[in-house]
Here is the input.
Amino acid sequence: MATLDIEQRGKVAILTLRRPDRRNALDEATTAQIDRFFDRPDKAIRAVVLQAEGPHFCAGLDLREHYELNRSPVEFMRMCQDWHRAFDRMQFGSIPVISALKGAVVGGGLELAAATHVRVADRTTFFALPEGQRGVYTGGGATVRVARIMTPARLIDMMIAARTYDVQRGFEVGLAHEIVETGTAEARALAIAEAAAEHYDLTNFGIITGIWRVNDMSTTDGLYAEALMAGMIMTNPNLRPSLEAFFAKAAPRLEPKE
Ligand code: 1HE
Here is the structure.
C-alpha cells in the first residue's frame, strides 16, 4: 500500500506522508517512494509540497520495523545510504520543495524536513533529535543538513541535553522559516509552491542546485561557479519582458513582508 500519496495540482505536486497510526515514521517502503518520486518527477511539476496526514509531520525512523528487521551494521548503513540518496534527490533536484510542518518533527522527520527548501510550521510544531536518549544515532543526514542549518554546536547540545525546541525556538535557529498564525501550514505551503512554480525554471535550478554546492566550495571556486550560473540566467532573452515590466513600473513592488 502506498504510504506516500502523490497528487498533482497544476504545476505543483502534493506529497502526503500517510502513516498517521505510526506518526508518519519512515519505513523502507516510504523512503523508497520518496526516492522514486524525486528520481524522475513529471516534467510538468515545477514545485512540491511535502505534508503529512494527522497531527504529526514525522516521528523519524520506523523503530518497530527497525526492531523487527534486527538489521546488521552493514544493513543499517545501506539503509542510511538509501535515505541519503532520496533526500539528496530532493535537496538538489532543481524543484523547490516546501514542507508543511506540524506536531512532531523529530529524528529522521527533522532530517527529512532539513532536505526541503522552505519550511512552514504551525504553532503545534516541535523539533527534537531523541536519538541520544534512545541510545541510537542520526543516520538520515542530520550531522550534515541539520548541523548546517542550526550549527554543529547546537546539534550536539540538542542531542546531549535532550532538548525539544518549540516552534518559536525552531524558527529562531532556522529549522522553520515561517510560523503560520492563520490558516494551516499546508495551505500556506501550497501558496508558496504555486508562486515558486511560476519562477523562471533556470533561476529555480540555480537556487536549488547551486547555493548549497557553492557553500561547499572554496571562496574562489564558489564565486566562479556563481558567475557561470548568473551568466546563463541573466543573459536569457526570457528575462527581457520582466525588465521591461520593471521599467514601465508594472512589476509588483517590493514591500517588507514575511
Ligand atoms: C512509532 C514511532 C516511530 C510513534 N517508529 N512507531 N524518533 C523518536 O524517537 C520518536 C518516537 N515517537 C514519539 O516520541 C511519539 O510517538 C510522538 C511524540 C511522535 C507522538 O506521540 P503520541 O503520544 O501522539 O503517539 P504515541 O502514542 O507515542 O505513538 C502512537 C503510535 O505510533 C504508537 O504505536 P501503537 O501501536 O502503540 O499505537 C507508537 O509506537 C507509534 N510510533 N513513533 C515506529 N518512530 C536514519 S536514522 C534516524 C534516527 C531516528 O529517526 S530514531 C527515531 C527518533
Remarks:
- The chain has two domains: 4-196, 201-247.
- DSSP finds twelve helices and nine strands in the chain.
- Residues 73-92 form the longest helix (20 residues).
